[in-house]
Amino acid sequence: MDIPNLSQIPTPVTTPSKISFPILGLIIIIAIGLGFGATKLFPIKSTSLSSSSSGDVSPIPGEDIKNASDIKVGQIFGDTNTAFSDSATGTIEKGSINGEGTHILNRDGGPSQRASLTSSVIDLDLFVGRKVEIKGQTNASKKTAWLLDVGWLKVLE
Question: Please, which contacts does 31-39 make with residues 24 or more away whose CB atoms are closer than 8 Å?
């Protein structure tokens, strides 16, 4: 019996399989569809945050404050999990400064200390006339001295 020399046995040449563009496109569309479907099945709910008399912040799942009369001193609203770099205290007023913002924060020191406010997290209309402490992020503006995007708000009065 002849034993073949291993160096003489041809090795099969394999080429990597290529996925065609239509199949790759179909895989991407299915992945996007599954991701979209998952967000519908398991939606991310924003929660209003409330402060108890002891000052502890506790989430109230599913509670949305719809009336200003439901708001109590000491309550906290917005995103308390984010460390915002800017803060201020004052009374919220409806309106804008030179067309910037949806609301104005009147601070001690007169008109030169006012700040324009916006918020995609909090309905600032509910806090008009209330003294609040706010935290957020300053945005660039050429029309107002200070444009602040409010991310967190605590009711003081």
Answer: none
